[in-house]
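Notes, p. 3: input format for complexes.
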Amino acid sequence: MTARNLITGAQNTWCPGCGNFVIQFALKNTIAALGKEGVDSDRIVLVSGIGCHAKMADYLNVNSFYSIHGRTLPVATAIKMANPELVVIVCAGDGDCYAEGLDHLVFAAKRNADITLLVHNNRVYGLTTGQYTPTSPLGFRGRSTPSGTVEEPFNPLAIMLASGATFVARGCTRRMDLLQRTVMEGVHHPGFAFIDVLQVCASYYNLSDYYEKRVYEISDHDEGDFEAACRKAREWDYNADAPIGLGTIYRAKRPTLEERLSATRGTETDRETIIRNVLEKRT
Amino acid sequence: MTARNLITGAQNTWCPGCGNFVIQFALKNTIAALGKEGVDSDRIVLVSGIGCHAKMADYLNVNSFYSIHGRTLPVATAIKMANPELVVIVCAGDGDCYAEGLDHLVFAAKRNADITLLVHNNRVYGLTTGQYTPTSPLGFRGRSTPSGTVEEPFNPLAIMLASGATFVARGCTRRMDLLQRTVMEGVHHPGFAFIDVLQVCASYYNLSDYYEKRVYEISDHDEGDFEAACRKAREWDYNADAPIGLGTIYRAKRPTLEERLSATRGTETDRETIIRNVLEKRT
Amino acid sequence: MDESSVLIGGKAGDGINSAGMVVAHLFNRMGYRVYMYFDYPSLIKGGHNFAIVRAARERIGAHRSQVDFILALNQDTVDFHGDMVHGRTMVLYDRSRVRAEGIGINLPQILKEEEAPPVMGNSCIIGAFAKAAGIEWKVLEEVFVRQVPKALSLNLKVARRGYEAASECCRIGSLGSSPVPVISGNEAIGLGLIRGGLDAYVAYPMTPTSNILHFMAEVAETHDLLVFHPENEIAVIMMALGLGYAGKKAAVGTSGGGFCLMTEGFSLSGMSEVPVVVVLGQRAGPSTGMPTYTAQSDLHFALHAGQGEFPRLVVAPGDAEQAYTWSDLALRLSWKYQVPGVILCDKTLCEGFYSFSRPDATIPRIDQPTKASPGPGYSRYLFSENGVSPLLSPPCTDTVIKVNGYTHDQAGISTENSEIAALMSEKRLKKAAALASEVFSLNPVVVGGDTGSDVALICWGSPIGVCREAAGSMGLRVVQPVVLSPLPTQLLQDALQGIKRQIVVEENAEGQLAMLLARHGIRPNLHIRRYDGRPFTVEELEVRVREALA
Amino acid sequence: MDESSVLIGGKAGDGINSAGMVVAHLFNRMGYRVYMYFDYPSLIKGGHNFAIVRAARERIGAHRSQVDFILALNQDTVDFHGDMVHGRTMVLYDRSRVRAEGIGINLPQILKEEEAPPVMGNSCIIGAFAKAAGIEWKVLEEVFVRQVPKALSLNLKVARRGYEAASECCRIGSLGSSPVPVISGNEAIGLGLIRGGLDAYVAYPMTPTSNILHFMAEVAETHDLLVFHPENEIAVIMMALGLGYAGKKAAVGTSGGGFCLMTEGFSLSGMSEVPVVVVLGQRAGPSTGMPTYTAQSDLHFALHAGQGEFPRLVVAPGDAEQAYTWSDLALRLSWKYQVPGVILCDKTLCEGFYSFSRPDATIPRIDQPTKASPGPGYSRYLFSENGVSPLLSPPCTDTVIKVNGYTHDQAGISTENSEIAALMSEKRLKKAAALASEVFSLNPVVVGGDTGSDVALICWGSPIGVCREAAGSMGLRVVQPVVLSPLPTQLLQDALQGIKRQIVVEENAEGQLAMLLARHGIRPNLHIRRYDGRPFTVEELEVRVREALA
Ligand SMILES: Cc1ncc(C[n+]2csc(CCOP(=O)(O)OP(=O)(O)O)c2C)c(N)n1
Ligand SMILES: Cc1ncc(C[n+]2csc(CCOP(=O)(O)OP(=O)(O)O)c2C)c(N)n1
Ligand code: SF4
Ligand code: SF4
Ligand SMILES: [Mg+2]
Ligand SMILES: [Mg+2]
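Output follows (1666 residues plus thiamine diphosphate):
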């Protein structure tokens, strides 16, 4: 394909200071880098949910399916099943992917389709003006919980590990370079790559300073060690203060959904033959 | 209340040899025992999904909400929120609770409402005549997967631990007494009690012998040790052969949803006052 | 004898459905056209199941109130169906378990002697039936060879013992026509979709369409078809849309409860113009209702499901040939106009069995719109005269293909501009009009019976079978709109030309077709409705029509 | 001056909505009745927001095509609204950022001097407006004291600077009437539900009803109300049903996409007879559409959502008083008849602000049915003359209370018996009839305008405001069915007596009310439709009515 401007002409409407700009930048660079590796941008498909995060579908000049709130993953999985040549990247929100459509997340991990998921985890509903999400800390005062939430957050990394994810990582929009490396690793990973991106929401939950003080790049860690990964994932529980490790936490090899599907599938393609065979048996 | 026959006159339509009879028996005994402890059967509410398991709502002569496929837990949580005096027990299926409505399961664990969930985990869709579920082993040949499934099962105990469940246990219909004790422990537990019951499906997935050979009662295990619980939960992965531990795997104390809700709630009950207050502010 | 009805009953687990099919094939071999109704509660073992096999010289699609033979594997079969017995009904029964008058066979003893398992009781009683009905052994043997998949020789032995234990009480003669396939409505839908170009079928099991999933999964063992059963119906429709975006023609199947969960994706299909076909098998509702019993009570839900306004295709075939034809057409039309489609069927059609004559020669061809050209100038939602934009799927060289559930501009980028919003709304109206005019040319209103009559039975879906017969015997016209959205109003009006009394026959309580017709200015004043989960029988409908006309 | 319109515009984040409210309250203090339309795209910061505040002597519920004042915090406010300017429109603007003619104020400089944050620019421009409009400082001060929640004295200082920087160009006089509350449609719904006996509100945020959730959550800080925001809309409706079963009156709120996910629970409500009220706020669809723009395109979806047949209440209030009244009534009626109810509103009503006069005195009383008696003989689904069964919630001594989404017998135990199934279906029809007859007595069709005219505007929902005005100015009758299910057909026909030309005014493309009327034999032939996400203005409607009648 011919070199292409990876950003569309659509007017960008994220708030000044929003972490989504950083994710957009990381994705753009990743797609450009993939191009240099021979992965044509025509083969990239971006799937997004609904929320601030999802506007990525309008902004990145690649194929996209701007889907509905919470339902990115079945769309993305199916696109990959339909055509394994496509490189499928998903931008989901934490409300989107951890609340509205959490079931699909667990099943994406279980199935190991070769897609890459970025959860823009700003720990708040941005586009609907600031309600708590499953990763907001206990007591968070949002617009639906003015006296504070009554629920501890869950730990998405721990859930992903328990669900069979083969690539589990965390990024933060305060660490753009590391995020970009992690995204690239995720895309390269043959299987479901889960990346929880701690994304600063400038308007409703600005944790810039909080993250700035706590995040560190994970090193001296065996990504292939499941137990170690669980410990690393639990180091910070999204609630109490703790160091927040960034980078890849776990990586394993397992056949992908597409590989397994193609192994069980028949080959006859003539429709008339198949109809005749069935009717013959029913006569 | 007056002593009551705990079984209704409804015709029982489970298959001969079905593990559901064992669960019914355990529940009936539990309810009777609770009666002796002073928990009036009038206070028991049973919530069921849709599937063979769910027929429990027709058979047990207690208050019941025979709900829809996959949606037991929000109903049950709300009943408890509405009236913490009620003792809420949920009978769900594995298709029901691990596939159709998995999201609610994770949130039930996260919220820690004081309800008890029994998943009749026969690892197959019974009532729709034998398709794979999220806990069927890889390669399972069901009616929707005649060449075998392309997905490894997930481990519901591991997911529950990762989701913040405060009581995680496993039962088996081949071990009626232990099951009954576990159910009683679950009901006594102040918070969300999750019990995965390995239930024999006589018609579509008869694992009687399989379980008979592998199940054992867990002992010498610290139920308060999260790491130990994780190890115990992962001992068997619902796929490869391994010893299958039964009994309570994890137990922790955390405020329940109802407790936290009542702490944040206002007390004014006069409707006219509230309307007038609001309108006054808007004038 | 020109026609014959056989009821076979027993417990769930006795193999009543397959036994019914074998009986159906006996008739089929002898040149009869058959129809089988299967009645079963929602349980796996026990309870009471029965199948009514009816055979006739001509194509049929309904059962009668009375039967000529009863094959009783349990006492209920005799006790529950007393009202179906006429003077010459012959009862064949398992003497060890059933008290009745007729031909008693000691099934357990025969099975024991042949060392056959209990489930082979049905083969034995079928053997007895064949003898009683004067059917040659050769016919039975042929049918068993073709239709009994497992333990053929033992089944034949057991059947032979039944054959020998009974005595002939009448003689059902051969008609000489050749046998034809006998398929369920579900299979007809499946085959029609395959003919229409289906690439993928995605479903979560739900009666009465689960068997499409099972059928497709079996087909996929040899055929290059993607069949997937995901975590729930939300995933089902979203996967179908993902497949559709990526260039695969996908259909899904469910019933009302599952369709509820699909409605958000359905609306997304309408907005994003990514097509999908939903097979919606109606059953008795509301809610879980009676999952294994029939109803026609989701018409308006299908017509209006999903927020906002977008064109949709809703077809309601009534028998196997129509199911095959219109599943094919639904898939083609949905893709041609890039709209969601619904194949609205019901338990009676889905799980009924029908003699099937391939209607391929009569299926109209749908031309495909002109191809899209890839390139940097491509706009997924290009405005066009008929509202349909050229369709491409990724990857295409130098082409960005954006689909979007937000209001979008021609390139697929979200917009809140009021003019573009109005234009896109008009684009959808234009597609609706284009679809309607193509539907007009596809013979979407079936007119039958005595077309000279000034009384018409108006029906939709599976009751066409029973209406056709009642109309035939009573000399009435029958009018069946097969396409319900866009409703071919003009053709309906033409079909009702000269009609004085219009009787709408429906299997629901509120009169859903009647409501739809009223909206379009057609206001029949006679109504026959049944809403207890059971389909009309021929005689019942005749009585109700006579009452209505009285 | 009898009426006045003010447009204030700026970026999202400039506080345009609250600024508009302050302006509205200035008029309110002076005895005007106000209406405010707020227009904003789906984004958090930036873009272009504007509010149109209109004040008049009488109650109003629509804005005009032209405004008397423009308060411009950004250039877009001047550039985008040129068509709203008339000869005497006065523009007040931020001189530092906007080029315009009128009164320029150097906002940044004033803010800097007062050490005030940028968001206080709106206070400053309001100050300037007050001066320009000849509004006394005292009025402004009073309004600020009551309506500005934070940093009052700094805001007042800044406003004073604006006041001083501007010059009077006209004088908006006080009318002498006392101020009344100014509330949004969402608040009116919330208050009505509370009046009706609401115990719990469950919702997942979704425009345009998110603010009901926020409002209820605030109320619950002091009031004994359970407010919960769970993982998604499926959980929302299932929780509401759990609450309903346990004796709590629960309502939920959403928009079309969320309602899709509720439809399965909605049908369960119909079957189980556990009531629930759904506030369904329409917005431009299909699918995500334009989330912050208005539409009336979910009427038929609301009327037919969920599989199977069951009675439902659908009310569509059109202004704050109706919203309050009918939210109260909807809750009471849903509980009395144990049916699901829908309060069908739209973005214009939900997020519009209205002067509100409490209509409590005119709200009809709904008698409660006779109490149920607990005990072993209790049957949750007891047959009764009007189909309604006595309702109990657990725990009750010696009482087993079973609700069920399967077809069930009177005790709530699942059944597949054909007779019981038919009887239960008839039970639901009886409830529908009983509900319809009660609705008949509740004044569910509003007739207004010139009742002697032979031309009628027929409308539903929020366009009642604009229709009332157009009808007033043009001498037409207005007919508004507030209840859409069960449709009070007879009352509608009465209301349309003597009408020669009927014009249906709707904010959708397909004419959804027209379809519904047609089904019931009322077939208006003139239609005015708008479907670009924006509500009609008074002038626009007048022009369209003249065109239609020409
Ligand atoms: C089914 C449905 N429910 C609710 C909404 C309304 N909605 C739009 S965006 C959003 C929340 C977005 O939060 P999140 O996913 O965290 O994304 P963010 O805006 O924070 O990036 C919601 C609830 C919707 N569009 N669809
Ligand atoms: C929304 C919806 N989808 C599908 C069904 C059909 N259905 C009824 S029971 C069932 C599966 C039951 O499996 P499981 O939950 O494991 O229960 P079991 O019968 O094994 O006890 C399904 C898919 C339904 N009732 N509702
Ligand atoms: S609301 Fe938060 S997440 Fe959304 S654009 Fe603004 S800063 Fe970003
Ligand atoms: S199908 Fe299986 S789970 Fe269902 S009743 Fe029979 S044995 Fe039990
Ligand atoms: Mg978020
Ligand atoms: Mg199961």
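The radius of gyration of chain D is 25 Å.
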